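Final report, section 2: Outcomes. Of the targets proposed, Transcriptional repressor is the one most frequently requested by collaborating groups, and we therefore present its record in full.
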Amino acid sequence: MSAERSTTQDTKTPPRNTRQRRLIKQTLGEGRDFRTAQQLHAELVTAGEHASLATVYRVLNSLADTGEVDTWRTPEGEMAYRRCLTIRHHHHLICRDCGRTVEVSGGPAEKWAESIASEHGFIRPEHHVEIFGTCTECAARESGTG
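The predicted structure is given below as tokens.
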């Protein structure tokens, strides 16, 4: 399960900024949590918008390829997407119950990765860190206090 920002830079013509692309980006930007293509498609349909599920998948993959969204493979193996609030390197805290996501600075993880790599004779380490836990709202519901 890895949330990651795609670093693939395509040398082809940039994707067209179609109405569906703008709509999907806007809808993705309205939430703070990772969502699957099916969830985004359902939101669009509920809002009375017309975009096929295939279009939603195509646009999301394109956004991931250009680094405009982070991706995360859910425990069920489905790809989920999130429009990040920052372009700087960061990591995520993800609630394993509701999917709530919080961006956190990569500083401490950067130092840890450099240290571990150096200790084992590696250079230029790359990493993806996600921390899974239970958010306070879900914990309160579980304990019956929410």
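The chain has two domains: 1-84, 86-146.
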